[in-house]
Model the fold of this input.
Amino acid sequence: MTDSKDNNNQKLSGWRLKIHEIIFEADTFWGKTFDVVLLIGILLSVLIVCLESVVEIRAKYGHILKIAEWTFTIMFTAEYLARVLSVVRPSKYIFSFFGLIDILSIIPTYLGIFFAGAHTLLVLRIFRLIRVFRIFKLVRYVGEAKQLGMALRASWAKISVFLIVVISLSVLMGSLMYLIEGRENGFTSIPKGIYWAVVTLTTVGYGDIAPQTVIGQTLATIIMIMGYGIIAVPTGIVSSELVKSHKKEITTQVCHHCAREGHDIDAEFCKFCGSKL
Amino acid sequence: MTDSKDNNNQKLSGWRLKIHEIIFEADTFWGKTFDVVLLIGILLSVLIVCLESVVEIRAKYGHILKIAEWTFTIMFTAEYLARVLSVVRPSKYIFSFFGLIDILSIIPTYLGIFFAGAHTLLVLRIFRLIRVFRIFKLVRYVGEAKQLGMALRASWAKISVFLIVVISLSVLMGSLMYLIEGRENGFTSIPKGIYWAVVTLTTVGYGDIAPQTVIGQTLATIIMIMGYGIIAVPTGIVSSELVKSHKKEITTQVCHHCAREGHDIDAEFCKFCGSKL
Amino acid sequence: MTDSKDNNNQKLSGWRLKIHEIIFEADTFWGKTFDVVLLIGILLSVLIVCLESVVEIRAKYGHILKIAEWTFTIMFTAEYLARVLSVVRPSKYIFSFFGLIDILSIIPTYLGIFFAGAHTLLVLRIFRLIRVFRIFKLVRYVGEAKQLGMALRASWAKISVFLIVVISLSVLMGSLMYLIEGRENGFTSIPKGIYWAVVTLTTVGYGDIAPQTVIGQTLATIIMIMGYGIIAVPTGIVSSELVKSHKKEITTQVCHHCAREGHDIDAEFCKFCGSKL
Amino acid sequence: MTDSKDNNNQKLSGWRLKIHEIIFEADTFWGKTFDVVLLIGILLSVLIVCLESVVEIRAKYGHILKIAEWTFTIMFTAEYLARVLSVVRPSKYIFSFFGLIDILSIIPTYLGIFFAGAHTLLVLRIFRLIRVFRIFKLVRYVGEAKQLGMALRASWAKISVFLIVVISLSVLMGSLMYLIEGRENGFTSIPKGIYWAVVTLTTVGYGDIAPQTVIGQTLATIIMIMGYGIIAVPTGIVSSELVKSHKKEITTQVCHHCAREGHDIDAEFCKFCGSKL
Done:
């Protein structure tokens, strides 16, 4: 990894290398400053899109917001071009996840000239916030994110089993409620019933559709108590996975013989080859 | 188990054996393909029933949906007959859990000719989705499902104690609210009050019935804070049970030398004395 | 304990001893049968009170329900008298927790002759259901209930710290919302605001009162995300306490020297006196 | 710490020292009594502010409440002056966190003479309740609070990663719903959409804004099921952190003989080799 990266950097000429270090990395002072400024810019530009959608604010400050939006778009366009120029293989960046997000977060403003409403898509800029984790790379945040991610990935099989059960249950309960309550009580179709079942099982409970008949309310009561137990399952899965990862966290030593990790803190001998640690 | 199964298979003639392997098992290529196709079919047929219940869609595409429903029903009927034929003792399959589900998922269409509305019962087909776990048997999903199931079964005694407490509490709180709020505020009967208490304790909170008087709202506040603590209990039970099952996953072997336990499942040498396990 | 109990039983004459064994204990066949019948009776009598509160049902079956209520009340009165007679010191039973519950669950019917509405208090009978745990004494249920209870008691200090924080937060947030939203948006007083804050923090969310102004909705958003984190705390407390109790569960051995329990599963020597286990 | 405190106390003259001990400490009988009385006073004064905001109560008992409020304010003012006088460096107390809270909880009444409505700020007095933890210092409550606080601080990095994900998700989902549902269904602006997304993700679900279109309800269903998984994460984090802290509570000492760790806090002898710890 480090070798290929050095190679890439060596291919870059003086000013391109400098721009690359500032824009793509967060190890130097200027690189970190650039990322912080970029994040503030992203947050502000998202805020502007949000404010512009409020009728009263647009009526009053519409002009200023329009100027601010264009300023940010031009700045982000310049940044995008700088990114393309300071990379050894531009096509690789352009079609990467971040490259696509970056272009998607500037195009809507230009499209907005021709198509009304297109600029609402600017909210896609919020995706650029994912870069925030790069700044934190220097700190311990990425380790924590990785641990969380690992715990979630490890429990993926369990969670997918759980999701199939929840969805099947929702379909069944939604259909039953459609049969019991019927069109006159808001359950106008099976999909509507399923929507109600999910709203209830997840304990959201809008109340826009609620059972009216005695049988419907009885069934709803049973579903709610079931939902009580069901909500415990994903929580239990994630908790136990994190407890497990904590335990694994303790293991640090590497065997001198077989160079394998994963020994317990109370281990005196390598559990794979039997040599003393 | 394997013996009796081999026996059964030997009793089946050539084509029946082949059909049995394809329909009932998921170990061969064709067996797995059949199951995947079947699952997609089940999902599509449930989707059709859902769509048919939407008035607007039925008005427009009612004819196509009717044809699709009949196509699926005929296919499922053929599959059902194939299952009956390819089994050594058909009566055993017919009255098994899956056999009953399979017949229940085709009958409603035929009943629909004579009785209007009967075909809504087709949603029972969703139960057939439980077969999905058989495909996953090959992968590690079933192990995870088993672990989840074991954790839930192990915590069943604790959860049933918890459920009795919650239900008693709901009955009591519902009756109290019926006395406090009375008919004019929506609490028209004790069952209605119990329904409200469950809606509140499970934090669903539809808002179709809500306390209006000061005393009622004070009691509701206390119930909600109690519900806060109560929801922690099933989660804690499942979490601790899963943590426990994780621990079991790890410790199994005992060292022959020092007779000490606590080795990881991937350990080959004792971590305390270094002798081979 | 066993001595004093033997003493008490010896003091009882033949038929009183027999009644005592049937009514108060669940170790013999008849004792268990009596308890099961009693529980079914309690459930039915509570169900009758519930049904009687429904206007339509009372209009139709009011007469039958009245008779059923009186039948159960007379049966429970007989049972109460039998309990008083079959106990060595009746006054001790009469003023015990169960004694008071038992008398409270029959009085309302008699009071109902003189005061209308008094018989709604019959729902207090549900408290008698707590006896259900006595039947389960024979099975492992009580052990589980004890473990749950111990975990809750052990985490009581943590939970009370948590409750003080939650209540302070609710008072503060409720007052702020009263100031921000004001009377015209449903926040008619500070207590109403506190009620709203609890409804929101516990994620119940009736929606009978909801913020209308932009500042109010912003504050509500912050409260909800805080509530997200807050709901994790009691769950975490109970989970960790139950995990801890599981760990304790593993310790079984008793030291031959000092006769103290609580050793780890991997302990070879008593941790209290140092003698070999 | 103790030295500088002794120094401070020695500088105080006779009656100032006595007042200091009563007001600022909770180790002596009078000190504890003072704190308990103070807490009751704070609770009562907050209750009065709450009651005064109820129109009906103010109309009836407004005069009494006014007198009570002034009584508490004068008492708290006297207490504040006593605190200032009995401290060696008054400026240090005045500008401390508690000093500011103390002055903020008496000023509003005086301001209320000149500005109507100012006295609603008296609810700030609830902050003074934080002192309650000082009384509990004598008991084990502070230890528990510290353990909870430590667990929360330890999991702060994980929780902040989680919060960034949740907020990004809310912004994106809110914008999508604004585009899908539009102004006519209550989603009048992107901030309103974000408000809805938070209400849904946190499972509060007021129902003041709810999706009406089929696409909107489908997206809402997906968001709710996601929210189900998401709510598991903070709970899992806190649980695992508390489990970890429990484990720490146990392991401290190392055996001098075999240098092995993992002994319980109540262990007197090494559980591995039997030598005294």
Chain C has a mean pLDDT of 76. The interface with chain A takes residues 203-207, 235-236, 239, 243 of chain C (CB under 8 Å). The CA atoms of residues 151 and 243 of chain C lie 9 Å apart. Chain C is about 70% helix and 0% strand.
